[in-house]
Amino acid sequence: MKPTPKPKVKQRPQYYALRVERQLDKLGYPVGDVDGDISARAKQALCAWRETHGLPVSRGGLTLNDAYSVLNATKRPTPTREPGIYVNKTCQVMYQIVGKTYKRIVWVSTGAPGYDTPNRTGKVWRKWAGAHESSLYDDAYMYDSIYFLKDRPGIALHGSRVNSLIKPYPASHRCVRVTRPEIHHIFNETPLGTKVQVYGDY
């Protein structure tokens, strides 16, 4: 009698989680702790990965298609957009595109419910180095602020007093909070006139 062949068993996505996190981190998609736990931070990275690779954008957990895509990659893709800063509210990430490369992919926290960051395209018109207190909210400090909407002059990309204020979900008062020291580097590398685009929905 011929032996009955055993059916091929597809691995579950979780089997690849640690390897996927290591690869995402290596390619510059921040995942937080590289521990095999697909946390909210790792989901932000996966969301960014999907967008930059032309896949359906979502904050969902790891799928087999994601795992194969990430583990077969050797480098970041070439952006299809012009140089500038792009804030994706769905993923709560920001892309800094310089030339034909993604210079940085960083976590952000956009406006909380009732304080929504508007989906708009603007240009950097003002920069304020270092720390200053918000003119609208007491004891709210902004670091290395980059203003990009002249008709909404209170809205900026900026660092906060502590990185714990940059949540993996919308939590700001309309500004785009960016992790430090990333905002400091972006501030120094972003001249006046740079395109800034905010888009997506959380």
From TrEMBL:
One GO CC term on file: extracellular region
E.C. code: 2.-.-.-
Pfam family, one: YkuD
GO molecular function: peptidoglycan L,D-transpeptidase activity; transferase activity
Biological process terms in GO annotation: cell wall organization; peptidoglycan-protein cross-linking; regulation of cell shape
Entries under Gene3D superfamilies matching the protein: L,D-transpeptidase catalytic domain-like
Origin: domain of life: Bacteria
Alphabetized InterPro entries for the sequence: LD-transpeptidase, LD_TPept_cat_dom, Transpep_catalytic_dom
Pathway the protein takes part in: Cell wall biogenesis; peptidoglycan biosynthesis
PROSITE patterns: LD_TPASE
Entry keywords, A to Z: Cell shape, Cell wall biogenesis/degradation, Peptidoglycan synthesis, Transferase
Domain L,D-TPase catalytic: 83-199
Active-site positions on this chain: H158, C175
Protein's UniProt name: L,D-transpeptidase
Organism of provenance: Kribbella sp. HUAS MG21
